[in-house]
Amino acid sequence: DTAVSQTPKYLVTQMGNDKSIKCEQNLGHDTMYWYKQDSKKFLKIMFSYNNKELIINETVPNRFSPKSPDKAHLNLHINSLELGDSAVYFCASSPMDQNYNEQFFGPGTRLTVL
Amino acid sequence: GDSVTQMEGPVTLSEEAFLTINCTYTATGYPSLFWYVQYPGEGLQLLLKATKADDKGSNKGFEATYRKETTSFHLEKGSVQVSDSAVYFCALRGYQKVTFGTGTKLQVIP
Q: How many A×B Cβ pairs under 8 Å?
């Protein structure tokens, strides 16, 4: 199926650990994003990549590092996890970085830090 | 900077009731406007969009009109169903960035 996929769907880990979330899109899109959704459903942009190049880097701790090996993949690595990192993380993509293009979202990764 | 303001939820309606979820925005330039829907346990998916003033987006019985004079993009549906229960997000896309509203939870009861 053509889609945006994320792995894992659930991630439970201890404070201080390092973890990664992977995202892949097979839609041929140029732009990919990471969002964080908190328990109140508030959605916050974290990063945006266009053709493997970082174009948006919002105020996010340095512990979060995105990596885009090719334009179909955008992974998120988190160092030294903290309780406040618990959230649902969504990957998304869009055809081109034009304002008329909608975004296609993955199913989300629910991260729980204990 | 750009911003989107949505009415706070939750909104609880009986089946077949009329739905309005208000959305207003501030932006520079000529943004596009979107409504996304998030069903429980899933990612967001596009419901409808409008890319210029006076455009009307529509899908699955939902409608919204891009009103530049009132900077609004209110979502409406004439008769909601239980299956419409979800969280609805208004979004604005300007240069390089998408700004989302805080989301409005809709619960439709039989």
A: 54
